[in-house]
Amino acid sequence: MHPEPAEPPLYGDRRRVAFVTGASGGLGKAIALRLARDGLDVAVNDIESENLDKVRKEIEQLGARSIAVVGDVSAELRVEQMVNETIKELGYLDVMVSHHGL
Q1: Which fold has domain 13-97?
Q2: 39-81 pLDDT tens trace
Q3: Among 37, 50, 65, 99, which residue has the fewest nearby CB atoms (within 10 Å)?
Q4: What is the DSSP string of 51-70?
Q5: Residues 17, 84: contact at Cβ < 8 Å?
Q6: What is the pLDDT at residue 14?
Q7: Spatial distance between the Cα atoms of 1 and 11, rounded to a whole number of angstroms
Q8: Which pTM does this prediction carry?
């Protein structure tokens, strides 16, 4: 078990923001929750919305901001839209974690 951070990791004077694909369950969810525990705000993504909103709520319970972004990462235009949505809602995008199943 990792120790809880004393303060959120900052980038300048703001919290960092991560985007995690395949985050509705399994390893993707674990990565998203770990980033939130480490003080990052997290946008969670999956191709279907099932369980994605639950993960978003878990992240928010940890004190981080979060949004759920449904979309297929194999569609370039949709990825661009998801990145723009994340920046619009959370202000920035610093970390991308590409974790999606086959």
Answers
A1: Rossmann fold (3.40.50)
A2: 999 999 999 998 999 999 999 999 999 999 999 999 999 999 9
A3: 50
A4: THHHHHHHHHHTT--EEEEE
A5: no
A6: 82
A7: 25
A8: 0.87
Instruction: Tell me, rounded to whole angstroms, the distance of Cα 28 from its chain centroid.
Output: 9
Gap between the Cα atoms of 101 and 49, Å rounded: 15
- The domain segmentation of the chain, as residue ranges, is 13-97
pLDDT digits (tens, 9 = 90+) for 5-33: 545 565 667 889 999 999 999 999 999 99
Torsion of Cα atoms, 67 then 46 then 28 then 19, to 10°: -40
Which of 61, 55, 57, 60 has the alpha carbon at shortest distance from 26? Answer: 55
The Cα 97–Cα 32 span in angstroms is 9
